[in-house]
Amino acid sequence: MIKVLSYLKPYRIAIAFALLLMLTELAVELVQPLIMAKIIDDGILANDLSAVTKWGGILIGCSIIAFFAGIINSFYAAHVSYSFGFDVRKKVFDKVQSFSFANFNLFPTSSLITRMTNDITQIQNTVFMSLRIMLRAPLLIIGGILMAFIVNVKLALILSIVVPFLFIFLMWLMKKGEQLFKEVQEKLDTVNAVMRETLTGIRLIKAFIRRKHEVNRFTKVNEDLKERSEVALRVMEITMPVLLLIMNLSIMGVLWFGSIQVNTGGVQVGEVVAIVNYATRITGAFSVFSFIIMAFSRAKASSNRIVEVLETPADLIDRTDVDPHGTITYGKIEFHHVMFQYPDTDSPALENISFTLQPGQTVAILGATGSGKTTLFQLIPRLYDVNDGTLFVDGQDIRELKIESLRRKIGFVPQEALLFSGSVKENIAWGKENAGMDEIIEAAKDAQIYETIKKLPNQFETKLGQKGVNLSGGQKQRLSIARALIRKPKILLLDDSTSALDMKTEANLLRALKKYTCTTLIITQKISTAMEADKIILLEDGKLLAEGTHQSLLQTSQLYKEIFHSQSREERDYA
Ligand SMILES: Nc1ncnc2c1ncn2[C@@H]1O[C@H](COP(=O)(O)OP(=O)(O)OP(=O)(O)O)[C@@H](O)[C@H]1O
């Protein structure tokens, strides 16, 4: 909790001011019973109207001060807590942006979303409450008891006997609450995960008529969340009745002992009234305290989840010995005995991979599903680091380049064309900061999407729905390619990105790519695409099975020959 709260440092002056105002309010609250005792004993019982006026005036003055202190305190508490929430959310967001894929394996996306929203809101609300009421409650309890002792020691003793036990009880409750609320937040993660899956997969759910199944799945996790939350709240809810019972018993004790003392003249009526007044305020403070304990336990559980993210070291960062001016000029790629294994898996996804691609070559990567094609791609922009061997670009180990310099020269089109909400223009320009309209049009033309864009209702200004829902699969693919081309990359990675294109469009695209003189790697299942490439790399079970041109592979690779013949046969059958 302390670690997260350290983000409050920039607001220390505002916090000090808020606390000062809160203490002013508190001081007024504490002297009020004393003033009332004076009005009763010195004014009403002594039949002295001037004393009633004097103490009454002081009481009103104090109340006005407390009123304004309360309003200004609220203003500062809101400013500090919301600014703190903003800062922590930004910090967590920045941290997550620096995560490698391996880091992401530790935190499911839905959990990261819960942490950045709900968890931070919990802490933010607790900070607000702290500055507004949290410290007031314990201070009011301590101050109330001290004032009670000033008024009458014997009566105050009766009142104070129970207080230490109540404090211990509340501390125990806080510890228990932290664990319970940790579980509640975990259940919330699961609810968010299911919600996310069902919302993103809504078309599939409808097509497979799986609505009932998904509703049941959601109901199950939603019920789990409800049950866990109920358990947590039930434990917290016992606090209030316990507190009220104990405090009411002690008030009864004060009244009973006080009435005996008033009769014998040991205590004045005003003193008994003042002590009962303090006891009532202390009881109120304890009730608030129980509420605070609940918020605090929850905030503590949430803080731990935030710290977990913030303290996870990003495991893919620039080495200290990187060449600050290093960049990619030609796009020559060399895999040298590369081995890669995903974290927490039993066997390598790529084993002893060695090959060289010359600048400007077009290379087709072929292989059965799961043979390691995407994995091989992900190593080039260092989305993962090789476990063994070396990957050179332009003769330099890519780990000796700054990650930013490396990625700046790579155009990456992932398997699933991912677009962002915004206009067509914004989606293409996303690939290059400050891209001009000429560059956007050029990239669109080369990606064979220009004519399609011209037919859209607002052409380049047409707004795309979430993830580009208003485009076809092939249109999305070509828009993603345009986004990669606008960077003028030296290395272009197309992960099955032409699968939805017809043969003519694909041939036009490959022709247009020639002018980029970039080394182009294309993962493809289509032999027609592979035939156009300068080189073909054939992967099987993470191993390089063969490499060469179409003609040479027909001679040397049995698997390639089989793929070629089976696809040629299919084409003949369809023709
Ligand atoms: N994030 C991951 N964590 C663990 N294992 C993974 C991960 N991604 C892929 N794998 C495994 O690595 C192997 C290679 O996967 P990869 O995605 O590179 O295959 P691929 O040839 O691109 O397949 P496809 O043609 O179906 O896209 C597979 O066995 C896969 O199960």
TrEMBL record:
It holds the Pfam family ABC_membrane. Keywords: ATP-binding, Membrane, Nucleotide-binding, Transmembrane, Transmembrane helix. Gene3D superfamilies: ABC transporter type 1, transmembrane domain (1.20.1560.10), P-loop containing nucleotide triphosphate hydrolases (3.40.50.300). Residues 16-298 form the ABC transmembrane type-1 domain. This is ATP-binding cassette subfamily B protein. It comes from the Bacteria. CDD domains: ABC_6TM_Tm287_like (cd18548). The chain crosses the membrane at residues 55-76, 133-151, 157-174, 238-258, 278-296. It is a multi-pass membrane protein. Residues 333-566 form the ABC transporter domain. GO terms for molecular function: ATP binding. InterPro entries: AAA+_ATPase (IPR003593), ABC1_TM_dom (IPR011527), ABC1_TM_sf (IPR036640), ABC_transporter-like_ATP-bd (IPR003439), ABC_transporter-like_CS (IPR017871), P-loop_NTPase (IPR027417), Type_1_exporter (IPR039421). It is found in: Cell membrane.
